[in-house]
Design brief:
Elements: H1 5-31, H2 39-64, H3 67-92
Length: 94
């Protein structure tokens, strides 16, 4: 399957400006005495990341992928969301 240059760019932007900053923000919040300092930046990066992932899924994958592959993509995104919520719960709910 050939992935277009535009799709690769969207995925790189989602990872580079969403996934990596989210990892470091969550990590810093986890080891910091006051994790609420990181709450607003985490939420902003989360919103950006979700928009980038949805754009990738609805613009590129919906047209190109079959029913089964689309189902796998949705399961992957849902699973990643559950993992993020678990990590968020670990940091902010005490």
């Amino acid at each position: 399957m050939k992935v277009s240059k535009k799709e690769r760019t969207v995925e790189a932007v989602a990872l580079g400006f969403g996934g990596l900053p989210m990892f470091f923000l969550m990590w810093f919040a986890m080891v910091n005495e006051n994790p609420t300092l990181f709450l607003i930046p985490i939420i902003l990066v989360l919103i950006f990341t979700v928009i980038a992932i949805c754009y990738d899924e609805f613009i590129f994958h919906k047209k190109r992928c079959g029913t089964l592959e689309n189902r796998y993509h949705k399961m992957l995104v849902f699973g990643n969301g559950i993992v993020w919520l678990s990590w968020f719960h670990f940091i902010y709910v005490k």
